[in-house]
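hey
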C-alpha cells in the first residue's frame, strides 16, 4: 500500500510502496536474467535471488526505460529550441548508500538489466573508488583513517569525469582502484567511450555542492549531472551486522591472498575478527554514514529500503 507524508505536517515528495505493490508495477517488462546471472551479480553475504530481481529490480528497470525515453525527448526539445544539432547525451544514473548495504550489487543488477533492453544500449558502470586520493596523498594529509569520507576523494576529477561523459565527449578516462592493494593502481585507467547509459556508484555521489573556500556560492555537484538516482537504505544496526558478517567471510577469500593489504586479518579468530570489524565500523564507517551519506538520502529519486534479512521490503519514489 502506498504511503504519503513524513509526519512533519507537510506532504512528502515521496510515495512509499511495500514490496508486493511495487512488484505489480513490473507489468510485462521482460526478464532476461537467470539464476546463474543472479549468482554472478550477488555480493558477498547478500540474499539475492530471482524473485528479488523480478519483484524489485524489474520495476526499476521499467521505470528507468521511461525516464530514459523522456529525457531523450526533453533533450531533443531543448536542442530544437536552441537551433543546435542534436548530439546523443548519455543517461546518467547515480547509486548511493553505505558500505555493506548492497549498493554495488544494485548497480551491477541495473547495469545488466538495462543492457538487455530491446534497444540494447551500451552501459558503463564506474565506481567512485577510482577517484580516491592515492594512499600517499591521504597519508601526507593525515586522513588515511578517513578513506571513504568526502575529503578523501579527488572531487574535482570526479566532477570533471561525469561532466565530460554527460557532454558526449568521445573518450573519458577514469582511474582504477584495487581493493586488493587498497590503493589507486598507478598508470591504469578505464576508458569510457560515449555510453548510452552511465551508472556511477559510490558512497557520496548524492552529496550537495561544496561551498568555495573563498566564501563564494557553491558550485556544481556530481548529482547535477544525474538523470536518475538510487539510494540503498537500511537500519544502521543491520548494516553494522552485515559489515561484520562480511568481514568474517573475507578472511577465507580476499584476505587470504598474501598480496592483500588486509592479509594480516586472515588468521584472526572469530572473536578477534568480530572485535576488529566492529571497531572499524564504529570508528570509521558509522560516522561517515551518519554525518555524510545518510543526509543525502532525501536527494535520491528512488530509495530502496532493506529489511534485516538484506532484502528490499519497501520502495520510495520521488514524484514531486
Amino acid at each position: 500500500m502506498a504511503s504519503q507524508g513524513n509526519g512533519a505536517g507537510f506532504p512528502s515528495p515521496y510515495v512509499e510502496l511495500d514490496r508486493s505493490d511495487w512488484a505489480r508495477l513490473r507489468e510485462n517488462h521482460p526478464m532476461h536474467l537467470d539464476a546463474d546471472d543472479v549468482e554472478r551479480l550477488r555480493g558477498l553475504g547478500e540474499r539475492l535471488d530471482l524473485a528479488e530481481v523480478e519483484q524489485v529490480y524489474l520495476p526499476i528497470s521499467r521505470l528507468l526505460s521511461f525516464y530514459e525515453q523522456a529525457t531523450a525527448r526533453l533533450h531533443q526539445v531543448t536542442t530544437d529550441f536552441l537551433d543546435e544539432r542534436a548530439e546523443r547525451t548519455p543517461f546518467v544514473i547515480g547509486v548511493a548508500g553505505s558500505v555493506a548495504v548492497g549498493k554495488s550489487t544494485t548497480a551491477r543488477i541495473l547495469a545488466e538489466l538495462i543492457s538487455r533492453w530491446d534497444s540494447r544500449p551500451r552501459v558503463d558502470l564506474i565506481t567512485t573508488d577510482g577517484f580516491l586520493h592515492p594512499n600517499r596523498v591521504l597519508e601526507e594529509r593525515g586522513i588515511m583513517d578517513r578513506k571513504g569520507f568526502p575529503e578523501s576523494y579527488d572531487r574535482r576529477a570526479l566532477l570533471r569525469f561525469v561532466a565530460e561523459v554527460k557532454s558526449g565527449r568521445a573518450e573519458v578516462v577514469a582511474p582504477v582502484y584495487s581493493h586488493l592493494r587498497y590503493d589507486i593502481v598507478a598508470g591504469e585507467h578505464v576508458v569510457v567511450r560515449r555510453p548510452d547509459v552511465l551508472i556511477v556508484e559510490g558512497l557520496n555521489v548524492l552529496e550537495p555542492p561544496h561551498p568555495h573556500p573563498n566564501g563564494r556560492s557553491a558550485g556544481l555537484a556530481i548529482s547535477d549531472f544525474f538523470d536518475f538516482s538510487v539510494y540503498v537504505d537500511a537500519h544502521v544496526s543491520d548494516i553494522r551486522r552485515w559489515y561484520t558478517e562480511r568481514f568474517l567471510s573475507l578472511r577465507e577469500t580476499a584476505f587470504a591472498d598474501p598480496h592483500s593489504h588486509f592479509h594480516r586479518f586472515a588468521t584472526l579468530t572469530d572473536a578477534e575478527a568480530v572485535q576488529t570489524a566492529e571497531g572499524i565500523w564504529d570508528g570509521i564507517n558509522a560516522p561517515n554514514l551518519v554525518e555524510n551519506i545518510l543526509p543525502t538520502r532525501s536527494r535520491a529519486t528512488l530509495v530502496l529500503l532493506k529489511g534485516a534479512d538484506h532484502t528490499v521490503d519497501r520502495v520510495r519514489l520521488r514524484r514531486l
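The first strand starts at residue 14 and ends at 18. The chain has one domain: 19-318.
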